[in-house]
Specification:
9% of the residues lie in helices and 52% in strands. By secondary structure, it is mainly beta. The chain has 4 domains: 58-67 and 533-605, Immunoglobulin-like (Sandwich); 70-100 and 422-530, Galactose-binding domain-like (Jelly Rolls, Sandwich); 112-136 and 317-416, Jelly Rolls (Sandwich), CATH 2.60.120; 162-295, Sandwich (Jelly Rolls). The strands form 7 sheets. Strands 8, 11, 12, 14, 18, 19, 21, 24, 25, 27, 28, 29 and 31 form a 13-stranded antiparallel beta sheet that branches. Strands 1, 2, 4, 5, 35, 38, 40 and 43 form an 8-stranded antiparallel beta sheet that branches. Strands 13, 15, 16, 17, 20, 22 and 23 form a 7-stranded antiparallel beta sheet that branches. Strand 27 and strand 28 (351-352) form a beta hairpin.
């Protein structure tokens, strides 16, 4: 009995150890599961953060305590004076070798007289399109229009000029030919030649041009009679057709009876033949079959290389002791990049003015009106005869196969007399400063900058701003200018008096007063700039997700400051941020913007 109890006690102890082992294993498995789950969750979260970070992309496109320069968005208004070169767009960027040129004008009453043409003569093969000389008196978008003519052309051939040794027999009312591609320009087909002979006796043949894309007949030549002599035969068009550039055409023949038509080897399906047509009334060979023959047939064509318009205008002016003449021409074309040459007739030389002479000027015109002015300050009387007549020749040229129209809106010769000290200039520009997004308290001042020179060193310019409170023009600066380009900068205090709610500011350039010298002014740059109390940063979100900007840094060698920020910027959005609490360091510095995801945009500012 005691032995049995002992065995059972030992077995019970073993069972306890087994249960304990099971419990240890189970607890270990649970612990491992928890650890693995946390690792997987952490890995997923890190991958999610990495993905979100990868989708963000921001850029700092501007950072300064000043705004970008705002320049004129329209042409300057000339209250007195003339623009003789360039446009307002040439005053947007300084030191780019582009500038707008103005010349002073006489203010003497009745010191000038304007003369427009009273008649015209068409030269060369120029054609009249529309309008009359009365349309040349005002710059009002009502035109006298002339059409161009081909002034230079090239004669060439399209097709196969080889003389083959093999032939096919083409029966009466059958249409045979081959496919060719026209050159990269419009061409005028003059004739078609083919190599062959009649089977016997005399045959009549017509030649045909077929557009391959829809197998429509474009043109049919006159009928020609051929014999049994093997040679090239040529048929001409009574009304030469115009063929389009880079287009597939089939050159074909159709006889009234059997002939032999020679060929050389061609490419796949180049040959076309229709065995059921009609010589008397050829129809579109839409049911043509194909072979690999390149029939001996070609089209002789003319291709225009140049088009031009030539017109002579005649005007008249009362004779006087004229000391200046200004030629003004406002014109355009129906084609871009047309060279327009304007030549006044030189009565002393007995010819039209040539390059380098006062009566000669030129420009490149396009589809938008261009106003050209040319001042003539010496030898005025060379361009007026004893009856007060003046003549202007206009020549427009373009290297093209396409015709164009010349459209004349204004042609004017303005003659003036100098009367002592009477030359002056007044230019007004309108500038739109983007201030609507900023509080007035954030704007410290407005800067105005010019880069300008004059044709002499004796000119003084006065810069004025239109005061919207007093409705007067206030003088804000006065400076003498030289014959070399220089910058002139002005700070516009009390700026609120000069800018309206839309940010529009009107500035006026005057000279100091009439004088005896007619000065030319060269304006290279004219712009306004807003100076802020604080810093302006322009940020663009070029990523695909919304970003949360949490801080920005301003850094240089001695300045390393972090500023809190809390702004959201949507995908594709650009925004200005103005921080009045940031003091801009001097010299070169770096700006950093940091998002919640840890992305950084950096801009170096000098």
């Amino acid at each position: 009995m005691l032995e049995a109890i002992t065995r059972r006690h030992k077995r019970l102890n073993k069972d306890k150890y087994g249960v304990s082992n099971v419990l240890v294993v189970m607890l270990s498995l649970i612990l491992i599961t928890v650890i693995v789950a946390n690792v997987v969750l952490w890995s997923y979260q890190m991958n999610q953060l990495d993905w979100e970070k990868a989708q963000e992309k921001i850029e700092i496109t501007y950072a300064s305590d000043k705004s970008p320069w705002f320049t004129s968005t329209t042409e300057y208004i000339l209250e007195i004076g003339h623009c003789i070169g360039g446009t307002y767009e040439d005053t947007w960027h300084p030191q780019d070798n582009a500038y707008q040129t103005f010349v002073e004008e006489s203010t003497y009453n009745n010191a000038f007289i304007s003369s427009s043409p009273s008649e015209y003569t068409i030269l060369g093969l120029t054609s009249y399109i529309d309008g009359s000389v009365d349309d040349l008196k005002n710059d009002d978008n009502i035109y006298l229009i002339f059409g161009s003519y081909s002034s230079e052309n090239l004669t060439d051939v399209l097709g196969n000029t080889a003389t083959g040794t093999n032939y096919v027999s083409v029966g009466g009312n059958q249409m045979y030919g081959s496919l060719f591609i026209s050159p990269s320009a419009y061409i005028t087909a003059k004739s078609i030649s083919f190599y062959g002979r009649s089977s016997s006796g005399t045959r009549n043949v017509k030649c045909i041009i077929v557009r391959h894309s829809d197998m429509q007949i474009i043109a049919i030549t006159e009928s020609i009679s051929i014999s049994a002599t093997l040679q090239w035969w040529t048929a001409t068009f009574s009304s030469p057709p115009i063929l389009e550039p880079d287009t597939q055409y089939v050159l074909m023949i159709i006889p009234n009876n059997s002939i032999r038509f020679y060929y050389t080897q061609g490419f796949a399906d180049q040959g076309h033949y229709d065995t059921s047509n009609n010589y008397n009334s050829p129809s579109n060979p839409t049911d043509s079959q194909h072979n690999n023959y390149q029939y001996c047939i070609y089209c002789t064509y003319e291709m225009d290389l140049e088009h031009r318009v030539e017109v002579e205008f005649l005007g008249n002016v009362t004779l006087a002791s004229w000391t200046q003449a200004t030629l003004a021409i406002d014109s355009s074309s129906t084609s871009d990049s047309v060279t327009a040459v304007f030549q006044l007739y030189d009565y002393q030389a007995g010819r039209y003015s040539e390059v380098g002479e006062d009566g000669y000027t030129s420009s490149i015109i396009g589809t938008n009106d261009f106003l050209l002015r040319k001042n003539i300050t010496s030898n005025i009387n060379r361009y007026i005869d004893y009856n007060g007549e003046w003549r202007l020749k206009v020549t427009c040229v373009k290297s093209t196969s396409n015709p164009f129209n010349f459209k004349a809106d204004l042609i004017e010769l303005k003659f003036s007399i100098q009367n002592g000290s009477d030359f002056t200039l007044s230019i007004m520009g309108e500038f739109t400063a983007n201030i609507r997004n900023f509080l007035p308290s954030s704007i410290r001042s407005i800067n105005v900058s010019l880069r300008v020179k004059a044709s002499d060193n004796l000119e003084t310019l006065i810069l004025k701003a239109y005061n919207r409170i007093s409705r007067q023009r206030d003088v804000i600066a006065q400076f003498g200018i030289s014959s070399s380009f220089k910058y002139y900068n002005v700070t516009l205090l009390n700026w609120q008096n000069y800018i309206d709610n839309n940010g529009i500011l009107n500035l006026i350039i005057n000279d100091s007063g009439p004088d005896t010298t007619q000065t030319t002014i060269y304006l290279d740059f004219f712009g306004v700039q807003v100076i802020f109390n604080g810093v302006l940063i322009k940020i663009r979100n070029v990523g695909i997700t919304t970003v949360h900007i949490v801080s920005l840094w301003v850094i240089n060698a001695t300045h390393h400051v972090r500023y809190e920020e809390n702004r959201f910027l949507n995908s594709g959005e650009t925004a200005y941020y103005l921080r009045e609490d940031i003091l801009w360091p001097k010299g070169a510095y770096m700006v950093k913007v940091i998002t919640e995801a840890g992305n950084i945009a950096v801009s170096l500012v000098k």
